[in-house]
Amino acid sequence: MVTINSESGTMTLLPAAPGKCQECASTHDADQPHNAQSLFYQVRFQMLHGRTPDWRDALSHCTEDVRKIWTDALAGHGIDVEAGQINQPMKGHRR
Ligand SMILES: [Zn+2]
Q: How confident is the model over 41-69, as pLDDT tens digits?
């Protein structure tokens, strides 16, 4: 959960619920990628690394086989992992 103090302008990220991945607040096996589309993951990663994460970051701890399976599956949904896309591009917004 993300809380924002509008007076001080500070942002606090509370821990993910017990049983959830503490990096993305989703439920997944340790050998599977973090949920790159999770707001929790996006905010946590930004706070730690000073930049926005993408699927390559979410997959970085996975084996080569798992990375390939996910990269291919995401490509099947129109998401170019190597281009840094997180979500399917909106129709009419082609690069
Ligand atoms: Zn995770």
A: 999 999 999 999 999 999 999 999 999 99
Give the single-character DSSP code of 62: S
Give the Å distance between the CA of 65 and the centre of ligand 1. 18
Ligand 1 mean position, distance from CA 93 (Å): 29
Q: How many domains would you assign to the chain?
A: 1
Q: Are 40 and 2 in contact (CB under 8 A)?
A: yes
pTM equals: 0.84
Ligand 1 mean position, distance from CA 92 (Å): 31
Tens digit of pLDDT for each residue in 9-32?
A: 787 889 999 999 999 999 999 999
Residue 95 lies in a domain: no
- Residue 78, number of CB atoms within 10 A of its CB: 11
